[in-house]
Amino acid sequence: MERNIYLNMVSIEEAIKKIKSLLLGKKNILGSEVIPTDKALYRVLSRPVFACYSSPTFHAAAMDGIAVHSNDTFGAREGNPKILIRDRDFIEINTGNPLPEGFDAVIMIEDVVFLDENTVSIEKPAFPWQHVRRIGEDIVATELIFPAGHKISPYDLGTLLSAGIFEVEVREKLKVGIVPTGDEVLDFTLKPNPKAGEVIESNSQVLASLLEDWDCEPVRIPPVGDDFDLLVKKTQALLEEVHILVIGAGSSAGSKDFTKKVMQALGEVVVHGIKAMPGKPSLLGISREGKLIVGAPGYPVSAVICFEYLLRPLIYWLRGENLDDFETINTVLTRPLPSKLGMREFIRVGIGKVGGRYVSIPLPRGAGMITTLSRATGLISIDENSEGFSEGEVVSTRVLRPKREIENALVVIGSHDNLLDLLKNELMSLGEPVFLFSAHVGSLGGLKAIKNKYAHFAGTHLFDPATEDYNFPFIEKILPEEDTVLVNLAIRKQGLIVAKGNPKNIRTLEDLVRDDVVFINRQRGAGTRILLDYYLNKLKIKPTQIKGYDQEEFTHMAVAVNVLTGTADCGLGIMAAAKALNLDFIPLVDERYDLLIRRETLNEPAIQKVLEIISSVTFRQKAESLGGYDLKFSGEIMQPKK
Ligand SMILES: Nc1nc2c(c(=O)[nH]1)N[C@H]1C(S)=C(S)[C@@H](COP(=O)(O)OP(=O)(O)OC[C@H]3O[C@@H](n4cnc5c(N)ncnc54)[C@H](O)[C@@H]3O)O[C@H]1N2
Ligand code: MOO
């Protein structure tokens, strides 16, 4: 089978315009159906609704008290009360009761003085219809309640039921068929256990949930293998049932990427390739019956961009509905974001409010990492005509999480430690949860983040050989002007993470120069890297003598994964990372891992919570059970060595 090379890429806007011009005759494709009112939430009325009954259907007391004839009460005032007699002049009544025949006002019980069982005195007149909800006050039978095209809200259900409308005629839901494809993808409904080369299918569920948010009806079928004839058969069958068909994966240039050919068998391909990343190989086409067909890339993030930025606007347009823009806020970029000219780029970011302004921390760009979308609280779009943004630039950022979560998020930037995950969990278990967003850029990066007010606190473990002190000499150099405090999180064991059973018998740093040992390093600026270089220097070992010295990872866990998978034989890291992956650990040094905080923020409630948690007995116990941690100083303010 020949490969699809997609050369005619168009912008997202052009792609939408192109397909719309061909679908024009197919707008408002939805038929209608009659459904019970209580099932009609967020459905769109296909014809106007008129009230069956009035509400109230009778004159009703609006307060607890007595029903009166208003003209009997005229003249009553303080010092000149009117006396009323039961049954003749007044009748006791409760809120919601029908007003007795002939009565036209209600006096609240608080304004009534009982002289005896049957006689009351009032000192204020009642005006006609005082405290009475008259027939039809809310709804008058036969009046128009909602026009056609109205989308039914939870309140509207109350209005419809009160007006005696128990069934409504609504537009049918737009049905979207979803066909996941690929020999390697496993149907998640079967709870599969993936082997090498296999992937649990998840994109169809992401799309199904998005479709529910957009008031559509998803119709998903189990994954179909990379078999052209079978793909045509399955997609054709599903196409008959739905208004729109989405085919997942197989969109790019691989030898088994059949989506374009399948779309050609069903109709015509209109767009293949958009000037956007992720999402580049997206396809748009039209079936012979005139239905929209979308080919979504297989990478999860690329698929989401295709769903949200191509499919979503087309769904709303086909239904003849207005589409709201995504909610955005302005954020200050904490890192530069270079971008390729001619491509619109979508960048996932974490957002936090630091020092009264929102900051955004870019996450990795890989389109295969669905977790980046789960971790992200914002999304930045870099225009095709832009080469990106500089650090510190204010950028419009789409919010992906509830505003409250973003407002309350604490940002920690710096060196990575597994205790931050423990802290994250503890903060979320508080009565008023605090969200912790952590970015791992090494200790030096953390210090700079505090200097620039990009983070609430930074994790740092920088050893200074000259003073044999931790962190203070670096703080003095990088933020000499700033008033900060250094709070200890833990003393932790750094050492060599090696495979289970230590098959290469690695014992000391001297073993790193052996021919049969491959090392995995941490990135420049990481405290662990500085520690390594310090000891190598002491032992007079040159980096060039170590295989793998140039291979860098950003976290202890990533180093441990390299050892677990055999990519490397060892790496320098913390014991907790080795223990988490059931690897062996050769302890080398104890080091101090601190949190750097601006003094002025020390009393902020969320920072106080952090300090309370890390000083607590439960946190200490949980941390110590991870292995390699000593929490005797945790929560204490550190002082420089004299
Ligand atoms: N030579 C080229 N290769 C690729 C190009 C290119 O331009 N030239 N484009 C790349 C880009 S960009 C993307 S995006 C991907 C899109 O790939 P496909 O749509 O063909 O998808 P697959 O290759 O079948 O799968 C990619 C990846 O995603 C996983 N996958 C697939 N379906 C699902 C699903 N339903 N749920 C979860 N994960 C899924 C699949 O296993 C693969 O790992 O192509 C690049 N290649
Ligand atoms: O553009 Mo692909 O869509 O990066 O992942």
What is the CATH top level name of the largest domain? Alpha Beta
Using only C-alpha atoms, the radius of gyration works out to 34 Å
Strand percent estimate: 25-35%
CATH superfamily of the largest domain: Periplasmic binding protein-like II
- Provide mean pLDDT, rounded: 93
Major pleated sheet = 9 strands, mixed
List each distinct ligand once.
Answer: ligand LQZAQKY5, molybdate ion
In angstroms, what separates the terminal alpha carbons? 74 Å
Total number of domains = 5
CATH architecture annotation of the largest domain: 3-Layer(aba) Sandwich
Number of helices: 17
Domain MoaB/Mog: 177-317
Protein name: Molybdopterin molybdenumtransferase
Enzyme class: transferase
EC number: 2.10.1.1
Task: Offer a concise description of the structure.
With 642 residues, the chain is of the alpha/beta class. It contains 17 helices and 39 strands. Helix 1 (12-23) packs across helix 7, helix 4 (203-213) runs parallel beside helix 7 (300-318) and helix 5 crosses helix 6 (259-266).
Provide structural commentary.
With 642 residues, the protein is of the alpha/beta class. The protein folds into 5 domains: 12-28 and 173-318, MoaB/Mog-like domain (Molybdenum Cofactor Biosythetic Enzyme, Chain A, 3-Layer(aba) Sandwich), CATH 3.40.980.10; 32-55 and 137-171, Molybdopterin biosynthesis moea protein, domain 2; 60-133, Molybdopterin biosynthesis moeA protein, domain 3 (Beta Complex); 328-444, Beta-clip; 462-630, Periplasmic binding protein-like II (D-Maltodextrin-Binding Protein, domain 2, 3-Layer(aba) Sandwich), CATH 3.40.190. The protein is 26% helix and 29% strand. It contains 17 helices and 39 strands. Strands 29, 30, 31, 34, 35, 36, 37, 38 and 39 form a 9-stranded mixed beta sheet that branches. Strands 16-13-17-21-20-18 form a 6-stranded mixed beta sheet, with helices on both faces. Helix 1 packs across helix 7 (300-318), helix 4 (203-213) runs parallel beside helix 7 and helix 5 (228-241) packs across helix 6. The longest helix has 19 residues, at 300-318. It is flat, with a radius of gyration of 34 Å. The protein starts with 11 loop residues before the first helix and ends in a 12-residue tail after the last strand. The mean pLDDT is 93. The structure holds ligand LQZAQKY5 and molybdate ion. The site of molybdate ion has 8 residues, from loops.
